[in-house]
Amino acid sequence: MLKKLFPYLGEYKHLAIITPLLMILEVACELALPRFMANIVDVGIPSNDLNYILRMGAVMLVLAVCSMLCGMFGAKFAAITGQGFGANLRRSIYNKVQEFSFADIDRFSSASLITRITNDVNAIQMMVTMALRLLVRAPVMLIAALAVAFTINPSLVLVMLVTIPLLVLAIGVLMMVCNRLFSVLQTRIDALNATVQENLVAIRVVKAFVREGYEKTKFKTSNDDLTQATIQVGMRVIAMIPIMMIAMNCATAAVLYLGGGQVVAGDMLIGDLSSFITYIFQILMSVMMLGMSFLQLSRSIACARRIDEVLETEPSIEDGATAAQDLPAPRGQVEFRNVDFKYQAGGTGEDVLSGIDLTIHPGEFLAVVGGTGTGKSSLVNLIPRFYDVTGGAVLVDGLDVRDYPLEELRKRIGMVLQNNVLFTGTIRENLLWGRPDATEEEMIQAAKNAQAYDFVMGLPDGFDTQMAQGGTNVSGGQKQRLCIARAMLRHPAILILDDSTSAVDTATDAKIRQSFKENLAGTTVIIIAQRISSVQYADRILVLDDGKINDIGTHDELMARCAIYQEIYQSQQEGVQE
């Protein structure tokens, strides 16, 4: 699993090679130090040779400095490599998510995707940093220290050959237990993020309905679940510490007992025993570091699986194969041919739209009305391929939308969604989302056409006024007008407005409709609206009922023959009269 992520080392591969080499050099220096100390104890001190002791001390000092420098630069390079790896991986996941359709994002959930881009990547990033140092240093130290210890006293090495397998067995059992728990832990983080995200996005609703207490309880449940999962993992990881300490103390006691007997018998020098004990500590510390690293590796594998799931997901909506030069000229014609659609394409969900046959002519002003849940938004979402049809076909300018490159298709369409979104930045930056290369005059004209210019100029900084996240520092009607201006700035062949004037007054609504006729001549306009006054002057009005076309015609025609349209009209007239 982790091998799949190695290419994301990218430009840091050379540091990923240098760092292990520095760790090996550090280990070599550390392994040499006890032997020089043994020479001082066994040779220099008994012979009272001060020059020999000073020479050995000078060599030890050089080795210590070399070890320190190798460790310092190794830590630096490992940190740079880990951070660079994390940055590359986050960028790749983010870019992949940009390719996802609405259905793909719905499948993962936005909270889970945020966790994978942040928390999961951080866990793997830490693993890379650790792997370049500890997972190189520890096994090299273990093998080399065992080899040196064997040259000093082969019989005492048998103590380690008994201790190490027992430690490896204990670590293996802990990894098997923790592997499942780490997956649970990441899922609990997903749930907590989802709770926080939902609360912050809907904080105004929470306060309006005085549901802070309920939300606190919901957060407490998610938080407690995460805490419990973390404790379960932590208790098992902590269990490794006493196991290691018991093994280390038992091994040291055995070496002191057996080695001490050999020293007394004259079969082993005191300096050799001292250095042997040092190597024992290095061996056992290496095993401990490996154990901790493998536990971190276990969590990283769980995170890597979740990240790989995103990276390996093929977007459910892919670019069409038609080359840009072979695309039809943008005229704004839209055709639905016996279209069926349901959100659970591979499941058993019911059709949201069924048997839709409709042709919208270039430059036509088409309105779509109907009750809540009749499929109005679903219908227009099929045109830019936010979702794909499950039956039939949608054509733009005579070509199936599935044959268009997505960028080319969506360039022809200006869309104002039901949930109006403004981004952090200035009003100018938000409007230029529609067309980044637009001139100042074009931007101002778009604002005037959407009836947004006057209120923008009334702000202290005009078009340079900063927008809060989500555009919360302007009213709902102002936000809608800015979103309409952004879409109009594109001069699209098709303009879709999904209930996008619901928050503006009827006079402003009428001015916006008039600007469509005057400034978007030739543009096909599809508008979903709840107010009959917003649609009665449309060229045609489509009435949807239960995902099917109930009727289509002008206002007068529908008033004469369509019961559903008559009912909507009468209910709104009664509201006006009251």
Automatic annotation (TrEMBL):
One GO CC term on file: plasma membrane
Superkingdom classification of source: Bacteria
The protein's name in its UniProt record: ABC transporter ATP-binding protein/permease
Native source species: Candidatus Intestinimonas pullistercoris
Compartment(s) where it occurs, according to its Swiss-Prot or TrEMBL record: Cell membrane
Signal peptide: none
InterPro entries, A to Z: AAA+_ATPase, ABC1_TM_dom, ABC1_TM_sf, ABC_transporter-like_ATP-bd, ABC_transporter-like_CS, P-loop_NTPase, Type_1_exporter
Record bears the keyword Transport: yes
Keywords (A to Z) from UniProt: ATP-binding, Cell membrane, Membrane, Nucleotide-binding, Transmembrane, Transmembrane helix, Transport
Residue ranges of domain ABC transmembrane type-1 in the record: 17-299
Topological category with respect to the lipid bilayer: Multi-pass membrane protein
A Pfam family: ABC_membrane
Coiled coil: none
Transmembrane regions listed in the UniProt entry: 12-33, 53-75, 134-152, 158-178, 237-259, 279-297
Keyword match Transferase: no
Recorded GO MF terms: ABC-type oligopeptide transporter activity; ATP binding; ATP hydrolysis activity
